[in-house]
Protein 1
Amino acid sequence: NKYWADLEKVDWRVFYVRLSLKDAMEMSETYIHSLEAFARVAKHLDKLPILCHCQMGGHRGPTSSIIVAHAIGEDTAPNLLKRALELKPSLAKGREYFKSMLKHFGMEKH
C-alpha cells in the first residue's frame, strides 16, 4: 500500500498519529477523547500546527479539525463549526462522522 510506504519518508521528528474511521461510521466517545488527547499532547510538545486530514477532504478531516481546535483551546465549538461551514458548506449534509461530533458538543440538529 502506497500510503504506508510513503510514511517511511516522514521525518522522525514529526509527531504523527493516525486514527482511521470510515465516513459511514459514527465516532465513539472513546475515539473523540483519543483525538482530543492527542491534540493536547501535540500542543504540550509544541508540535503545532496540527494537520487533520482524510483521504478525500470531505468530512473526516474538517470534522476532526473542529474537535482538535476546540481541544487545544482555539475557540468554542459553535464558532469553529460556523467557520468550518463557511469554508466547506457541504459539511452541513452531516454524515455519521459529522453527526457524532455535533452530538459530542451537544449541538445535534433537530
Protein 2
Amino acid sequence: MPNVINTISNRKEIEIQRDGEKVGVIYFDPADMAIIKRLREAQDKLAEVTLKTDKEADIETMLAEADRIDAELRKAVDYAFDYPCSDVVFGNGYSFTTAKGVSALEQFLKGAIEIVTAEMKTEAEAAKKRQAKYLDKYGK
C-alpha cells in the first residue's frame, strides 16, 4: 500500500453560467491571498492585448492571431486559479468575445474578484476568531 498524505483545503466553489445556464464550476481557496494579485495580473494581461497583424491580413492570419491572444488570456486565468479552469469559464469561444462591449474575460474577472474578496474576508474573520480564542488568554 502506498504512503498517502491527504491535506484538507478550504476550497470554495464558483458556479459558471452563460446566459443564465450553468456550464460548470471552478474552485479557489479563500486562504490563498495571492489569488487577488494573480487575478489583477490577468486584468493587466487583457489591457495589454494587441492584435499583431496588418489590416490587409487574410482570415487565416487573423484567426491564428486570435488563437494566440486567446491562449495567452486563458493561460492568465489558469495561472490565477492555479489550475486549468479556463475551458469551463469560456467554453469553446474566445475569452475576449464581447457582449454589449464587455469581453467575457472582463465579465469573469469582475465577478471573480468580487466573490474571492468576499470569501477571503469571511475566511480572515473566522481565522481571527479562532486565533483570539487562544491569544485572549495571554492578554494579547
Protein 3
Amino acid sequence: MKNLILVLCLLMSFSTFAETKIAVVNIQKVITSIKEGKNVMKQLEKAFKKKQKELKGEEGVIKKLQKDYQKQSLVLSDKAKLKKETEIRAKIQALQKKTMDYQKGIQKQEAQLKKPILEKLKPVIDSVSKSEKVAMTFEVTASPLVYAESKVDITDAVIKAYDKKY
C-alpha cells in the first residue's frame, strides 16, 4: 500500500512538472544589446585599444632588438650575445607580465561596470518571467539545462523591458 501511494505521488509530481514552462535568457546578449550595456562596451573597448596600442609599441621594440641581434650575432662575442639574449628575454617576460596585468585590469573594470546593470537586471528578468508565466528561468550560457519540452527564450523581452524601465 505504501508503495502504491508513493508511485501515485511520483506520477502526480511528474505530470505537474511536465506542464511546467521553463525560460532561458542570454544575459551576455542582454548586456550587449541594452543602451546602458552598449555604453559599457564602448568604455571597455576604448580602454582596451589604449592598452593594446601601448603593448604593440613595446612589441615593436622587442622585434627590433631581435632583428638587430640576428644581424650582429656573427660579430658579437659570446659574452655580448648572452647579454643581448638576456636583455631580449627580460623584455619579452616584462611584456607578457604587462599583458596579463592589462587583461586582469580590463576584466576587473568590466565586472565593475557590469555590476550595476546586473543588479538592475534581476528584477526585470523576474518580471518578464512572471509575465511569460514560466516556473523557472535559466541563464542560457551557464545553466545545466540541456532539454526542456516547453522552453521559452525571453532574452529579447528582457532587453525591451530593461530599456523601457531604464
